[in-house]
Amino acid sequence: AMAEERAFAMVTCTAPVNIAVIKYWGKRDNDLILPINSSLSVTLHQDQLKTTTTAAASRDFAEDRLWLNGEEADVGQPRLQACLREVRRLARKRRGGSAEDAAPLNLSYKIHIATENNFPTAAGLASSAAGYACLVSALARLYGVEGELSEVARRGSGSACRSMLGGFVQWQRGERPDGRDSRAQQVAPETHWPELRVLVLVVSGEKKQVGSTVGMQTSVDTSPLLKHRAEVVVPERLALMMRHIHERDFEGFGQLTMKDSNQFHATCLDTFPPIFYLNDLSRQIIALAHRFNAHHGCTKVAYTFDAGPNAVIFTLADTVAEFVEVVRRSFPPATNGDQFVRGLPVDSPSLPEELLAAVVTEPVPGAVRYILHTKPGPGPQLLDDPSQHLLGADGLPRR
Ligand code: DP6
């Protein structure tokens, strides 16, 4: 006998941003989003950076609708539709197996989705990974689907599959043409390396670049360095990176993180026509990190850059205050001096004169808008408190 159906359901989840230390760049299948190489990332804490998504289904909704940061958006985007289709397929499969769900939600009801970031989209922080991880988490909860969902999030954006888990996460490229083995896997939980800290240097200036999807396709088509990287360099580096993480070896972790970011940007230069994500400021930050490490005689900070000009710095808790001060002296805030450092608290340091003299060269006022201090964190979360839903009982955005 058919169980009684619910007429309405609503679920809210949050999901994190992740930053790759072994980069994903290049697909072998554009539709399924299958990568040419495995990658490895650190999931960032949702206290500082997160996406929140509410998904609702109702007998009374006339059409599927989507709101991004309060603005209605196109629900027909192929990648969003792929995620929706896959979650519904898993729901159907599950019910076909052991249909004991007390009150299943009708899979043909229209849905409303509202999603919001707790960080300014204009800051150019990668939001598609958190966005798709959050969408898939919320839809899965809505339809009662459990278990491995990184495969579904991958269909939204490749890097999104890594945001389905907390801590240190590997996305295995897999071998199968159908992508069933191209999934995220946790290498270590967020509690594994308690001293590890992350500083996001949000930079000023233009944000019009080649998008990742288009950029990596051009690289696959034209860069011999990318081919060599995927076939030879990444497999070696992945094994090494996992060892550094397991041993909490910051020297090894930091060096390899910087080298892999640099090689990713080298493949961009090797792309034809070339793609430039690093700019003068990125190069100043890179040089600053190397001067800082040279002064200390070891790797104290490690930078990494994605397909945009913001810098992400990995360091250990005991180095945060000193490095933040060095950044403040190197890129003195133009206006927002009091809000220059956000996120986790940072102590006020005493900077040795010889460090300043050796590390801070010609200051560039206003180049860094602010620094966000965060750390590794857990995977997507379900919000139990109904007051946190982004949609009201009428299924429309609350604000
Ligand atoms: C440079 O995941 O945004 O951030 O799969 O086409 O959506 P699509 O690309 P996306 O690419 C991210 C590239 C990167 C490196 C990384 O995160 O590994």
UniProtKB/TrEMBL annotation:
Q: Which InterPro entries match?
A: GHMP_kinase_C_sf, Mev_decarb, Mev_diP_decarb, MVD-like_N, Mvd1_C, Ribosomal_Su5_D2-typ_SF, Ribsml_uS5_D2-typ_fold_subgr
Q: What is its EC number?
A: 4.1.1.33
> Which residue intervals make up region (Disordered)?
378-399
**Domain Mvd1 C-terminal: start-end pairs:** 198-382
Q: Name one GO cellular component term.
A: cytosol
- Single annotated GO MF: ATP binding
Task: Name the UniProt key words of this record, in alphabetical order.
Answer: ATP-binding, Cholesterol biosynthesis, Cholesterol metabolism, Lipid biosynthesis, Lipid metabolism, Lyase, Nucleotide-binding, Steroid biosynthesis, Steroid metabolism, Sterol biosynthesis, Sterol metabolism
The reaction(s) this protein catalyses = (R)-5-diphosphomevalonate + ATP = isopentenyl diphosphate + ADP + phosphate + CO2
Which pathway is this protein assigned to?
Steroid biosynthesis; cholesterol biosynthesis
Q: Which residues form the Diphosphomevalonate decarboxylase-like N-terminal domain?
A: 15-184
GO terms for biological process, alphabetical: cholesterol biosynthetic process; isopentenyl diphosphate biosynthetic process, mevalonate pathway
> According to its UniProt record, which protein family does this protein belong to?
Belongs to the diphosphomevalonate decarboxylase family.
Function (record text): Catalyzes the ATP dependent decarboxylation of (R)-5-diphosphomevalonate to form isopentenyl diphosphate (IPP). Functions in the mevalonate (MVA) pathway leading to isopentenyl diphosphate (IPP), a key precursor for the biosynthesis of isoprenoids and sterol synthesis.
Report the protein name in the record: Diphosphomevalonate decarboxylase
Q: Origin organism of this chain?
A: Rynchops niger (Black skimmer)
